[in-house]
């Protein structure tokens, strides 16, 4: 029941406490998200479901990743440019998420609890931990000489879909009402192209000469010779 004694609208679904979402925002509103020619999901939905689901997928696949690491007979110390780029981008995204989390926590501590909703702080924390986990996945795949990772491909795909929805929403809102929170807007706009780059990189497989040589740790001269005479082909694309 609402304050005036009437039943709440059946088109609005809000299972969380009031502080969880921004004031005036709901988790799901059928009127704006479904029964309209211009669907728009709420900010609360963007910061929860569109962030949580991809991150949950990556954490849920951790036992499978651990099994693949233990079952691999390769132990590669060499870094390729793809592995380095993926790691740097993952750590850069983690830094952005940590900066956002620190800023939100500072604002909540100094200004007041109503400055930011809880969902923003939780989303930043989850993203920071998940991006670090993604960097660990890259290292483990490189260590085990695995040319590609279907887990990371789907993670970045799901995350890119969610970020694209949020990107569209932020741009439309900025055009109609201006930028309300320049800090969060800037952090997201800095992170979005990095997520796009991660997805693009995840579409390509790496080349490990150790697999062709059939040795766990071949001598560096053999590895350099394989890399020098290796000719990339269509097989370098990730095949799922």
How would you describe this protein?
This protein has 240 residues and is mostly helical. The chain is elongated, with a radius of gyration of 22 Å. It has one domain (46-236). A two-stranded antiparallel sheet has the order 1-2. It has helices spanning 30-33, 43-60, 62-71, 81-110, 118-143, 150-177, 182-202, 209-213, 220-229, and strands spanning 12-13, 28-29. α2 (43-60) packs parallel to α5 (118-143), α2 runs antiparallel to α6 and α6 packs antiparallel against α7. The chain crosses the membrane at residues 49-67, 79-99, 119-140, 152-171, 183-208. This is ABC transporter TMD0 domain-containing protein. Residues 38-176 form the ABC transporter TMD0 domain. InterPro entries: TMD0_ABC. It comes from Ramazzottius varieornatus (Water bear).
Describe the protein's topology:
Layout: E1 12-13, E2 28-29, H1 30-33, H2 43-60, H3 62-71, H4 81-110, H5 118-143, H6 150-177, H7 182-202, H8 209-213, H9 220-229
Antiparallel strand pairs: 1-2
Helix pairs in contact: 2-5, 2-6, 4-5, 4-7, 6-7
Protein name: ABC transporter TMD0 domain-containing protein
GO cellular component, one term: membrane
Organism: Ramazzottius varieornatus
Give the structure's gist in a few sentences.
The protein is built from nine helices and two strands; from the N terminus they run ββααααααααα. The chain is mainly alpha-helical and 240 residues long. The protein has one domain.
């Amino acid at each position: 029941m609402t304050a005036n004694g009437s039943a709440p609208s059946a088109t609005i679904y809000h299972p969380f406490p009031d502080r969880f979402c921004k004031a005036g925002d709901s988790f799901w509103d059928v009127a704006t998200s479904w029964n309209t020619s211009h669907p728009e999901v709420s900010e609360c939905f963007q910061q929860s479901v569109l962030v949580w689901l991809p991150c949950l997928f990556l954490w849920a696949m951790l036992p499978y990743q651990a099994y693949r690491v233990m079952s691999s007979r390769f132990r590669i110390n060499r870094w390729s440019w793809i592995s380095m780029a993926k790691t740097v981008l993952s750590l850069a995204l983690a830094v952005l998420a940590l900066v956002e989390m620190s800023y939100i926590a500072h604002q909540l501590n100094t200004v007041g609890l109503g400055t930011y909703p809880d969902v923003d702080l939780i989303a930043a924390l989850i993203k920071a931990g998940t991006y670090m986990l993604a960097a660990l996945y890259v290292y483990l795949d490189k260590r085990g000489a695995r040319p590609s990772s279907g887990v990371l491909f789907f993670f970045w795909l799901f995350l890119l879909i969610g970020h694209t929805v949020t990107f569209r929403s932020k741009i439309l809102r900025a055009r109609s009402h201006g930028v309300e929170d320049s800090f969060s807007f800037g952090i997201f706009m800095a992170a979005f192209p990095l997520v796009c780059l991660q997805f693009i990189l995840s579409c390509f497989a790496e080349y490990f000469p150790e697999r062709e040589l059939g040795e766990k740790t071949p001598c560096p001269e053999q590895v350099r010779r394989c890399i020098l005479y290796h000719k990339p082909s269509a097989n370098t694309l990730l095949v799922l």
